[in-house]
Recover the amino acids of this structure.
């Protein structure tokens, strides 16, 4: 599946680029974030994502209506937007929006 970033900070973390200022996430959360994004890259479709129960893929409500989330660890969730690309063969793109503390 194609992964795109709408969050420059998370994109830099994923690509091992330097980020300025105090880190927003612990080293453990960053490792789990990278593992989760790699899992998403190797999926073929949203249907495959639904079958991975450990990621807990779900549609969001309230202020995040229209977005989805997957579990990074027990505390953090990756906020995603599913986008279809209108080429000859329609492929799904997951746009990474944010990494949030689920219980805050």
């Amino acid at each position: 599946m194609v992964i795109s970033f709408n969050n420059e900070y998370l994109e830099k973390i994923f690509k091992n680029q330097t980020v300025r200022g105090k880190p927003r996430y612990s080293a453990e959360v960053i490792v789990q974030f990278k593992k989760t994004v790699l899992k998403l890259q190797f999926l073929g479709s949203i249907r495959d994502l639904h079958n991975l129960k450990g990621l807990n893929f779900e549609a969001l409500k309230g202020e995040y209506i229209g977005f989805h989330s997957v579990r990074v660890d027990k505390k953090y969730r990756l906020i995603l937007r599913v986008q279809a690309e209108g080429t000859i063969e329609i492929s799904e793109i997951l746009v990474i929006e944010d990494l949030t503390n689920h219980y805050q």
Summary: The first strand starts at residue 2 and ends at 5. The chain is about 25% helix and 30% strand. Strands lie at 2-5, 58-59, 68-71, 76-85, 91-101. The chain has one domain: 9-16+25-101.
